[in-house]
Amino acid sequence: MRCVLNKKLLVKKYAEKHRYFFLYDAARELGLDKELVMNYCYQLKKENLIFGAGRGWYSNFARSFELDTEPVQEMVDSIKKKFPLLKFSCWSTRQINRFTHHMLGKYVTLVYMDWDALPVVYDFLKDAGHDVWLNPRGKEAERFAVRENTVVLRPAISREPRNGYYAAIEKIMVDLFIEGESLYLMSEYDIVRKNILEDGRIDVAALLAYAKRRKVPSKAVFKE
User: Fold this and answer.
1) Does 65 map to a domain?
2) How far apart are CA 151 and CA 79, in angstroms?
3) Rounded CA separation 139/123 (Å)
4) How many domains does one find in the chain?
5) Does pLDDT of 1 surpass 50?
């Protein structure tokens, strides 16, 4: 019994030291059997000492990350009203403004949908007075600049983390890294990433799976 308690205590102390950890990493680093560590994690989770952070991932962060959707509510309502059958998701740099070191003065809204819908939604938003960019790449991306009511339309990515029409924070973290390079959208990504991870518990498994689909190195978006 003493040996069992000592092993459980090892897992507990490991969890206390790691904001996030992967089950198999913990087993390997502690030199314990995977099934044994899984059972201890199950017990610690029932005791509310650790919390699920996606398949195989755990965190000692009790509070889930909460994303404010108000900044994109008007955009969502507008597109839904015009195209009620369209499946899309969106997010705005305004949603992550509080995680930046230098507050943003102007914001960009990014909307993701099927390729076929991009041109008609582009025309609709353009007529509504938005500064719209239709999947800017190459030379057009080099000309990109954030103005008033700037919207970027992109083709949707399969199995992207989302809550209905609203991009989840795991999607935003990956997309922001990509757009930071393609549109020079943000120069302080590491600061934003770090502040997001310290604000609430995210789904690490969903984050890494989406990063893999978008060919983003896992360490770029999750360095913990």
Assistant:
1) no
2) 12
3) 21
4) 2
5) no
Give phi and psi for 139, each to the nearest 5. Answer: -60, -40
Tell me how many degrees the CA angle 222-23-158 measures, rounded to the nearest 5: 50
Q: Which domain holds residue 204?
A: 70-221
The pair phi, psi for residue 144, each rounded to 5°, is -60, 135
Is the domain of 44 the same as that of 103?
no
Co-location of 23 and 79 in the same domain: no
Using CA atoms, how far residue 219 sits from 177, 182, 190, 223, in Å, is: 11, 19, 11, 5
Q: What is the pTM of this model?
A: 0.91
Q: From the CA atom positions of the chain, what is the Rg in Å? A: 20
Residue found under tokens 């897992």? 11
Distances 90 to 22, 53, 81, 87 between C-alpha atoms, Å: 29, 23, 15, 11
Q: Are residues 76 and 144 in the same domain?
A: yes
What per-residue confidence (pLDDT) applies to 12? Answer: 92
Assess whether 120 and 202 both reside in one domain: yes
Inform me whether the pLDDT recorded for 127 exceeds 70. Answer: yes
Mean pLDDT of 99-108: 80
* 152 pLDDT more than 90: yes
Look at the alpha carbons of 126, 130, 131, 132 in this order and tell me if their dihedral is positive or negative: negative
Answer yes or no: are the C-beta atoms of 106 and 192 closer than 8 Å: no
Residue 39 belongs to some domain of the structure: yes
- Give the contacts of 213 (CB within 8 A, at least 6 positions apart): 157, 158, 159
Q: What is the DSSP code (8-state) at residue 64?
A: B
